[in-house]
Design goal:
By secondary structure, the protein is of the alpha+beta class. The strands form 10 sheets. Strands 2, 7, 8, 9, 10, 11, 12, 14, 17 and 18 form a 10-stranded antiparallel β-sheet that branches. Helix 7 (399-407) packs across helix 9 and helix 11 packs parallel to helix 12 (579-594).
Length: 850
Amino acid sequence: MQRFRSQTAALSTAFLLLSLGTALAHGQSTRGGDDLRLLDHVTEYHSLPDGIDLRSGGAREQITALRDDVLRIRITRGSSLPEDASWAVLPESRRSSVKVTPESTGDRVGFHTDALRVEIDKNTMALTVSDLEAHVIQKDSKPARFEGDTFRLYKAMGHDEHFFGLGDKTGPLDRRNEAFTLWNTDAYRFQESTDPIYKAIPFFMTYDGGRAAGVLLDNTWRSSFDFGKASADMYSFGAANGPVDYYVMYGPSPKQVVESYAWLTGKPPLPPMWMLGFQQSRYTYVPQSRVLEIADHLRADHIPADALYLDIDFQDRNRPFTVDTKLFPDFTGMIDKLKAENFHVVAITDLHIANAPHQDYAPYDSGIAGDQFVKNPDGSVFTGIVWPGPSVFPDFTQQQTRAWWSTLYKEFVHDGVAGFWNDMNEPSVFNTPSKTMPEDVVHRIDEPGFAKRTATHAEIHNMYGMENSRATFEGLLKLDPNTRPFVLTRASYAGGQRYAATWTGDNSASWNHLRMTTPMIENLGLSGFSFSGADVGGFAGSPQMDLLTKWLEIAAFQPIDRDHSEKGTADQEPWAGGSEQETIRKRFIEERYHLLPYLYTLADETSRTGLPMVRPLFLEFPHAFPDSHPMDVDPAAAGEFLLGGDLLIAPPHYPDELDSYSVEFPSRDWYDYWTGEKIPVPVAVASTNSPQPVDPNTIAPLTIQVKPELASLPVYVRAGAILPMQPLVQSTNETPKGPLTLRVYAGEAGSPCSGELYLDDGKSFAYQHGEYLRMKFSCEVTADGLRLHIGAHEGSYPAWWKEIRAEFYGLQPKQYRAAVKGREVTAEQSAAHISVEAADDAKGLDIEVK
């Protein structure tokens, strides 16, 4: 054990007064004694094999390295660290460690890993994390502060530092100059300034000069994050109670940070393929005949679709896990008929259970018998008003309660319901001032890895919805172990992506809400929830028909494409508003189905790496500009997003405006997705101050002007991409007929060119035992043409195609001759591309165009 004492008592006193003065300037209490504690100097420290343990009087800070690029920081105002347990972080990641090299100088102590250096100033206890090239990743700007049960941490903020994450908070993509509260809230008709809303995901990414780092505050209590709103030179975060337990993940690339966060909190499981199809929903389709009518209309108009949703009115008196047999006289027969027409039915199952004793309501009777519901402080069962009236609430912090909850799905699963929708799980309660459970309601933690104890709702609230979706997900696996569950949740916490997809909640049918959707989905993806979407067309209110059309166009390129609206609004199915609007909408839904091989390959990538399907531009292009700022903050790029690494979707930032707007590209070589034409790149021009031409490579990324039109949406493909596409089908259950198409977009000679395809049965877990198909593609631009390599099939799952059609864009070959495996074949020519068809024998082949 080593001990350190401040050089002079006067220095320590001066620093304390300075800290308290700053606290006073921010409106914070300066009370002394046990109520206020600042970790402002080191009194003791000792090295650990994987980090360092420090004391500041009676307070303690421990910093350990889980990996060379991932640190864990724990701080307590007492001498003992709190229980080492987490609802968010995976046990195997939390237990991980690497050996570190201790370091100590006259006034600093710390350690380094193979990627990071950790330094603590002994005089101030300020923590600095930097990479081995001395780039500061994170630096304390003030001492860690405890006041009563609350705590707050303060970090220096760079003049060009940007912040992303926290899930689907409203407002701009960049969180800089904003402040947020994390407290899951039923926020019907939320607006751009509404906070808090449905989810509490205490993860954010910092981005400065092309270098990225992530921070996860693993604390389930009400928490808050301030990214420079209170002070121009620092950001801060803290919580009302609970442990100071946070993780720092270093990139330096933003992709590495996202993958590290997935390593910590888990990756989304591979969803059933039908989740990627078009989904039609409403509050509510009743009676049974109306549900069948919607299905028939979709099929009659040949609008591809995969899912129909049942909202609360299909239930008996809004009671979960029931069916209103008057409105749905043959529920099982309806499910069978829809299944025969390749529709998957998703049924809502809210977590509030009607408080209905002696009424033969099995969920209530079995729950009471098993003591499954949360309690008031006096030990009675808590009751709150929700859709069924007086309701009780499962105590999902108990493993036995989650097991009981899973049994409630047995009949629905037996009947063939394909997916389940956990709504209102913030939880929403109508008759309390807070519109949720009182904070003193009692939960009983009985969970592997946790000490068995009681906890108030103030501690459990933010992860309650996640554990609801977990119970549903795990229950469906028990009931049907070889079918991938589909669970859709409204509320969640960090790590909730392990159990459910999500959506952005009760949005409104307005142009502004369409504009807000993109940054919400992007930040959800950065925060672990790749599989997300918004209520297409808007939930609250009736959309203008042009708004519905434009929303359906954009949603065709987002992970979940679900058209949903509330009771009392106008119809907003794809045919609403007449045939002209329907024709446009249908074309974009069809394009989504053509792209299913690409979409499903992205979903597989998400399940393996945690990388989101929808991405901000800086995720793929962190160095698009010489100063490496995130180009998504540019006004010209604010409405754009990437689908995977190859497709750039560029609606106007303000989608209701009629003026021409700029599309800003993150690199120089792109193609128009619809026409196949290459976007012209800047040419060398003479400077007004110099006779020397300007090198196009030094010009900011390519920008073009676009005139918005109702029937069009600008979509672009990165040069060097190879997109797998399929013939049109009406549902994912239907086998495509015809060749697999590979669209090859030529780049410059020597530039990378690649693509991939992943396929399996789209339903089961057989892929985990080798029953999948993976193909990798690459191409090389040669002096006189292009050579495409199609890799051999990996895995045992059979392809649905016999032939591959390769379409080459951007080529100007000298001879327009093609060869497959060295044998000359016929090449077709069109205005946009050259195409070649070849048999696919699963062993791999080469196609050359000259």
